[in-house]
Amino acid sequence: xxxxxxxxxxxxxxxxxxxxxxxxxxxxxxxxxxxxxxxxxxxxxxxxxxxxxxxxxxxxxxxxxxxxxxxxxxxxxxxxxxxxxxxxxxxxxxxxxxxxxxxxxxxxxxxxxxxxxxxxxxxxxxxxxxxxxxxxxxxxxxxxxxxxxxxxxxxxxxxxxxxxxxxxxxxxxxxxxxxxxxxxxxxxxxxxxxxxxxxxxxxxxxxxxxxxxxxxxxxxxxxxxxxxxxxxxxxxxxxxxxxxxxxxxxxxxxxxxxxxxxxxxxxxxxxxxxxxxxxxxxxxxxxxxxxxxxxxxxxxxxxxxxxxxxxxxxxxxxxxxxxxxxxxxxxxxxxxxxxxxxxxxxxxxxxxxxxxxxx
Length: 359
Fold this sequence. Notes:
By secondary structure, this protein is of the alpha/beta class. It has 15 helices and seven strands.
């Protein structure tokens, strides 16, 4: 029988071997990541509807590395002529309203009709660790198995508006890959309602009844943006409260004049968990699309989306250039110290740094 000393030595040897193997595997993974991908092959994969290529292309455009700048431009410019052929539906609501369950049921309904559905689901990131759970694929376990469905969870990072920094570009890539229905799920906090409304064709607001959410929904800004309000979890003991909330929302909607697009926002009840009301929601969206395409509003809104994307891209680029400026990097810590010691105001400091950056 081997001694405990020999056992220990053998275990150490196995441990060292395992560590070396892990190190080799890790280095191999890093090496593969560093390898330059064939951009033309990647683009062709996207245009053929290959979901792996689409995922890789979205990962590429989300990169902050300067060495990827040219490749990102090539991918977007190559995919752009094949985009703009989808219906973009924005879905927002407070955490816990049941967005993922609702989206899965709607997505399954659409794929059964023969549509190709892409879900761009944005998870909130921690402001401390920058981490995100990215659990949407887990929550949509049935939809993720559908051949005609693509789910892309992305962390919102520091991006305002409850949408990821590159959601706009991701929309174009999904369209180029042949997905004709895009469901953009947002964090549902802060500026999310405004931002998702600016990049989609139909804006769907999910609400809860009996949770103090009715009053929130009557705010003027949300009413003006929403094309429909869906009171989710309208089932069981909550049905009475849901019906009451529907009356309240309808009353609020009637306080405002009709929209320029000729559409009157609707209030619907639904229970995504029980798959009740989903059919009515899609019928409503189809009717809306028919109306706005016939009166020309659909194209007008797409033009406004492009204008919004232009201004947002310029602002993002200016911000990135400012913080990557070598002069700013050198000056920023010292200027920050002066602000903290109250030698100068934040406004004076900002003016000084902007002049230094020459933007």
